[in-house]
């Protein structure tokens, strides 16, 4: 299912995990990995989690070096939160199609059309976009962040339209929503879920709010159109937690397929089925063990954020971290 199976990289160079471990100690480094990373990367990481958990971990680490196994905006967030540490992204080309849907000029133009509006930007944005925002949010806390904003304030929410629609629905708060999408999640549509449900009618549905199927599935679930199926819409870490805690034994998982490795590791007796086996983020899969080892050896490629941008972006991130979830 995945482009590269764990054994392939390790089989090609069986000493790699050990070499990474030695370098990690020599460099006093911590390896942070997102839930979509390749299995072998998750297995060497010190911490695996969602965007919120990874930012919190980056903020609290006392390591000198952070090797960020994820995509560029995540490494930038780590660099903003830990300005005195060396933040490495093993492949600088690991971007994000969703983050690319809005830039700072576009956001400034949008703000000019809505003077006084509060800007809430999803963490999947560049540091420059965060610097133009009042609040950052992740899929774990977007609802709480929007609920924390006084009811009379106009809100601009960017850049994910499916997450925005979900937050609007859950908070009852109308917002102006940027029409961006992640090409991986937009491709997970209601037809995929329906087909998976027909094959496994008792399975619980775990859905990431970036998915194109989120709103219609929740609507159908609340109107009784999906009998027997529990539907949970949450962040990648919320999905992993639910997989462990739920009484269900079979799950249809609507997000990037890298998360199945973590679920299978933490709940080995349960069955996890991807809603769309082709939901593979090519950017997340750019991080490989040889690139992690090379990054630790050369202390590059490094991700830095200009101090002026970082200070303004940090305000938006700190406001988010201060909202109780
Ligand atoms: P999470 O914060 O839920 O891990 O999502 C990040 C992401 O990029 C989803 O595509
Ligand atoms: Fe970006 Fe989508 Fe990949 Fe997440 S899955 S990092 S939103 S391109």
From TrEMBL:
Name of the protein: Quinolinate synthase
| Listed GO CC annotations | cytoplasm
NCBIfam families for the chain: nadA, PRK09375.1-2, PRK09375.1-4
Q: Which residues bind [4Fe-4S] cluster?
A: 96, 182, 281
Q: What is its EC number?
A: 2.5.1.72
Q: How does the cofactor bind to this protein, according to its record? A: Binds 1 [4Fe-4S] cluster per subunit.
Function as written in the Swiss-Prot or TrEMBL entry? Catalyzes the condensation of iminoaspartate with dihydroxyacetone phosphate to form quinolinate.
Q: Looking at its record, which EC class is this enzyme?
A: transferase
Pfam families in the cross-refs: NadA
Top-level lineage group? Bacteria
Q: Where does iminosuccinate bind?
A: 34, 51, 122-124, 139, 208-210, 236
What subcellular locations does the record give?
Cytoplasm
What biological-process GO terms show up in the record? Answer: 'de novo' NAD+ biosynthetic process from L-aspartate
Q: Which InterPro entries match?
A: NadA, NadA_sf, Quinolinate_synth_type2
Q: Which residues form the signal peptide?
A: none
Q: Which UniProt keywords apply?
A: 4Fe-4S, Cytoplasm, Iron, Iron-sulfur, Metal-binding, Pyridine nucleotide biosynthesis, Transferase
- Catalyzed chemical reaction(s): iminosuccinate + dihydroxyacetone phosphate = quinolinate + phosphate + 2 H2O + H(+)
């Amino acid at each position: 299912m995945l482009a590269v199976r764990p054994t392939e990289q390790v089989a090609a160079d069986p000493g790699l995990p050990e070499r990474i471990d030695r370098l990690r100690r020599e460099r006093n480094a911590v390896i942070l990995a997102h839930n979509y990373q390749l299995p072998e990367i998750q297995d060497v990481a010190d911490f695996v989690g969602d965007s919120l958990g990874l930012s919190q971990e980056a903020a609290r680490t006392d390591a000198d070096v952070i090797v960020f196994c994820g995509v560029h905006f995540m490494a930038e967030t780590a660099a903003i939160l830990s300005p005195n540490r060396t933040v490495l992204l093993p492949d600088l080309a690991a971007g994000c199609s969703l983050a690319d849907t809005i830039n700072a000029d576009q956001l400034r133009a949008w703000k000019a059309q809505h003077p006084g509006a509060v800007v809430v930007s999803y963490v999947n944005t560049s540091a420059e976009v965060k610097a133009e925002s009042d609040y950052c949010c992740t899929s774990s806390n977007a609802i709480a962040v929007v609920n924390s904003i006084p009811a009379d304030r106009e809100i601009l929410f960017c850049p994910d339209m499916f997450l925005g629609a979900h937050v609007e629905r859950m908070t009852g708060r109308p917002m102006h929503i940027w029409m961006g999408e992640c090409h991986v999640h937009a491709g997970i549509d209601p037809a995929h879920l329906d087909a998976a449900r027909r094959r496994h009618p008792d399975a619980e549905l775990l859905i990431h709010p970036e998915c194109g199927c989120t709103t219609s599935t929740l609507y159908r679930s609340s109107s009784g159109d999906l009998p027997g199926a529990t539907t949970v819409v949450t962040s990648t870490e919320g999905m992993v937690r639910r997989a462990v805690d739920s009484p269900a034994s079979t799950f249809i998982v609507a997000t990037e397929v890298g998360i199945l490795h973590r679920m299978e590791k933490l709940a080995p007796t349960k069955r996890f089925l991807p809603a769309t086996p082709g939901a593979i983020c090519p950017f997340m899969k750019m991080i490989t063990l040889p690139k992690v080892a090379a990054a630790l050896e050369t202390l590059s490629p490094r991700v830095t954020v200009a101090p002026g941008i970082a200070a303004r972006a940090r305000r938006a991130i700190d406001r988010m971290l201060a909202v109780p979830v």
